[in-house]
Design goal:
Layout lengths: L4 H6 L5 E3 L8 H9 L4 E4 L6 H14 L4 E7 L8 H10 L4 E6 L3 H9 L3 E6 L2 H10 L3 E5 L14 H9 L6 E4 L5 H9 L5 E3 L1 H4 L8 H9 L5 E4 L7 E4 L2 H11 L13 H10 L22 H22 L4
Parallel strand pairs: 1-8, 2-3, 3-4, 4-5, 5-6, 6-7, 7-8
Antiparallel strand pairs: 9-10
């Protein structure tokens, strides 16, 4: 068993975390990951109301008694969700691990710390990771350019970003982006991380609540089948390549603004992709790591074989090194 600062701090068996994916991070998937010894994540804003989040956590608790986290992505919007209400709902549900992403979580840390909640903050750069440590989060999830969703604007891949982060942080951190198996876990540990976060890999699992057509497309896809959108708007996002994402890039490259693509990128359209299996209904997130995903196993199997493969790699590499 691979024990790290992260597993010790968060009370889990294996240094494998399931990404908090919109429309995907629900009770069945999170519970399956946690029951296998990793850390499953329920996505707060997937739930229509804070009360629904309480009920979703309760559903997960009926499936496992192991630690489960909640993800809350905080973004400045014209009509923002009631973020603090969702946080209080997570606390009321007995959640003790929260993953934050997006805006600075500082305004909420006192509330969370008062209730014994440990905070993992997702970052896309070393400078933001350092800031997160300074404000008092318990761990960082550092997102490389390979990741699905929003990779930031620095375009730094994990091979550099992970050790650069290790050089600057004293708190535990996990590596995100481009990781789908034990090779990725072993590499992340060797580069200084304390574990890994996997999104696309768990999106392509039995328990992921998305249509089978999405999972089959991921298995069929290659590392070249993603599209970077919103580059001209300074809000880069990595999504699956399809007719919609190509049209978004075309419009923005021709000088369009967000209003000109708003309908194409509406969240309701992306939700249809996952729920109905219409791969051209909207944009949907997946990372370049889909080029390494070749099956649709149970989430627990993903956790167990990822750790077993990493242990085998680390053991063999250790034996292969001859002391001087």
């Amino acid at each position: 068993m691979i024990s790290t600062r992260f597993t010790e701090a968060f009370g889990i068996e294996h240094p494998v975390v399931q990404g908090g994916m919109m429309w995907v991070g629900r009770a069945e998937l999170a519970a399956a990951v946690s029951e296998a010894g990793g850390l499953g994540i329920i996505t707060a804003l997937t739930q229509p109301t804070p009360g629904d989040l309480v009920r979703e956590v309760a559903r997960a608790r009926r499936l496992t008694d192991k630690p489960i986290g909640v993800n809350l992505t905080i973004l400045p919007t014209i009509s923002p969700p009631p973020y603090e209400d969702y946080l209080r709902a997570a606390i009321d549900a007995g959640v003790t691990i929260l993953e934050t992403a997006g805006a600075n979580p500082a305004p909420y840390l006192d509330l969370l710390k008062t209730h014994g909640v440990r905070v993992i903050h997702k970052c896309t750069s070393v400078r933001h990771a350092v800031k997160a440590e300074q404000i008092g989060v318990d761990a960082v999830s550092i997102d490389g350019f390979e990741c699905a969703g929003h990779p930031g604007e620095d375009d730094i891949g994990g091979l550099v970003l992970i050790p650069a982060t290790a050089d600057r942080l004293s708190i535990p951190f996990i590596a995100s982006g481009g990781i789908a198996d034990g090779r990725g876990l072993a590499a992340a540990l060797a580069l200084g991380a304390d574990g890994v976060n996997m999104g696309s890999r768990f999106l392509c699992s039995v328990e992921a609540p998305v249509d089978e057509a999405v999972k089959r497309r991921i298995v069929e896809g290659t590392e070249r089948d993603t599209q970077l959108i919103f580059r001209t708007l300074g809000n880069t996002a990595r999504v699956a390549t399809n007719g919609v994402s190509r049209e978004v890039v075309r419009i923005l490259d021709a000088g369009g603004d967000f209003a000109s693509v708003r309908e194409l990128v509406a969240g309701a359209r992306g939700r249809r992709v996952f729920e109905e299996g219409d791969l051209e209904a909207g944009i949907w997130s997946v990372g370049v790591v889909q080029g390494l995903i070749r099956d649709i196993p149970p989430a627990g199997e993903i956790v167990r074989r990822t750790v077993a493969e990493a242990e085998d790699i680390l053991r063999r590499r250790s034996l292969a090194v001859t002391p001087v």
